[in-house]
Amino acid sequence: MLGNDVVDLAQRGTQPGAQHPRFDARVFSQRERALIAADATQRVRWVCWAAKEAAYKAAKKLERALVWAPARFEVTLDSCSGGSVRHGERRFALRVFENETFVHALASDDAALRDVQFGVHEIAASADASAEARAFACRELAAPLGIAVARLAIAKRGRIPVLCVDGEPARVDLSLSHHGRFVAYACELRAAALAARLAS
Description:
The protein is 32% helix and 34% strand. It is of the alpha+beta class and 200 residues long. The protein has two domains: 2-113, CATH 3.90.470.20; 117-199, no CATH class. It is globular. The model has no long low-confidence stretch (mean pLDDT 92).
């Protein structure tokens, strides 16, 4: 199962010192707080946050009754671009992409994160972020699937996004995210390509 999360680093709440003093204690483990304290840019706080959110989205697909409790997701960073997130007995592989404007995290129970297509897109301030995220994912997935954008749509099953081809759910793992100026998606493409061929 796959999850992703994006954090806009220009949002007021993501600025250094913008968090309530109890925020870190409530959200991060002692080891995670040590990483945050050692980071002059404070960006690692949002790397850990995005990693937890991404892992939660993946875990929610495996356990529909799961409740968001960020402190229960333990982030380990092996490098500036990867690591893992543990939740109970489950462990999710982690990949992180960051720059001066955003942090984007992918989490998957597939340790290799094979055949995952993903992207981040900046939107206008007045745009409907949820609609923009769905439209962006459809545009990005149409070409690798070899089908017209018009054949793709994204519906929801509960709060989980579902990619549809010609109105029918495709057997594919999709995750959407948005925050501030950015929308993002991640999709496992092996199953998607098969679903698209079957729907042709």
